[in-house]
Amino acid sequence: MDLRHMRHFVAVAEELHFGRAALRLNIAQPPLSQSIQRLELDLGVSLLNRSRRGVEMTDAGRAFLVEARRTLIQAELSRKVARRAAEHKDELRISFVGPALYRFLPQLLATCRETHRHVNTLLYEKSSPEQMPGMLAGEFDIGFVTAATDQIERCESLLVERSAFLAAVPGDSALARHASVSLATLAEQDFISAPRKLAPQGYDVLSMFKSAGVIPRVTQEATQTNTTLSLVSVGLGCGIVAGTAALRQTPNVTFLPITDMPAYMRWELVMVWRPDHLSATAAAFVEVAKSLIAAHPEWLDVAPPINLITAAEARQ
């Protein structure tokens, strides 16, 4: 049994047709049939039932398909890791959610640059659900995801940032003159929210409003925090964002504490990595991150940023 036989079987199992599988693999049909027969002989079981009506998988075939896919994915990952180790020793690929740019990630990159100027850093902004498959497939060395992500598998993690959720409201609206706002009040406004299917578990807006017994009037969907803030700035609605967003000056956007946000709902940013495929460059990056967190314990404080507190006092 070798990887070639596995690839052939997966193609036939997915197409359930030898002719289509042969075209997909760009080989003739007789060698494909022989490859599957050799695989079945090596395993000592029948993987496929062949008849005039077509091809069906046996119970053994369905079980083997799951493991064959995993084996092929792992084999491809091993190839990528080996080639990258040989060709790109000083390259670091980092995936991240947008709010990582408000405080932690730029500070980390600047600190690393002081001692690792030779490292070429590649940055990829992606949602948390989008990052994890890439992390597991070896496409990224380090990821920054929300703490509620339920897909962290075979990864080590480090909590690097924590903050309260804040309401982002148009700066020229009546709400902007208040020092704080409730979820009930926000539910009465046009609201901007990420599609629920893309929201990490525990971070979707409907769960937040449900805790207050209200339903938001979602009039616009946006997947990125910066997109939400841009829409808020032109008066298209209000949004709920990570508290660190207030550290950035966004024209015509006012950030307000939310009076009835449940205490257990808070923004948390986590750095994740695969320990079994961590290069020396990535390992050094992790150590710098740990030192940075130790030097800034306030970054794990859930209190609103100082500039937000000052602005709220000025409006009172």
The CATH topology of the largest domain is what? D-Maltodextrin-Binding Protein, domain 2
At CATH level 2, the architecture of the largest domain is 3-Layer(aba) Sandwich
- The neighbouring-strand order within the major sheet is 4-3-5-12-6
Radius of gyration: 25 Å
Integer average pLDDT = 86
Q: Quick one: overall form?
A: globular
Percent of residues in beta strands?
A: 15-25%
Pfam families: HTH_1 (PF00126), LysR_substrate (PF03466)
Family: Belongs to the LysR transcriptional regulatory family.
Keywords: DNA-binding, Transcription, Transcription regulation
Protein name: Transcriptional regulator
Question: Would you write up a description of this structure?
Answer:
Belongs to the LysR transcriptional regulatory family. It comes from Sphingomonas psychrolutea. This is Transcriptional regulator. It holds the Pfam family LysR_substrate. Residues 1-58 form the HTH lysR-type domain. By secondary structure, the protein is an alpha/beta fold. It has a five-stranded mixed sheet, sandwiched between helices. The mean pLDDT is 86. Helix content is 42%, strand content 20%. It is globular, with a radius of gyration of 25 Å. It has helices spanning 3-15, 18-25, 29-43, 59-87, 104-115, 128-136, 183-187, 205-210, 225-233, 280-295, 306-315, and strands spanning 48-51, 54-57, 91-96, 120-125, 142-146, 156-163, 165-170, 190-193, 217-221, 239-242, 253-257, 267-273. It has two domains: 3-85, Arc Repressor Mutant, subunit A, CATH 1.10.10; 88-316, D-Maltodextrin-Binding Protein, domain 2. The N and C termini lie far apart (74 Å). β1 (48-51) and β2 form a beta hairpin.
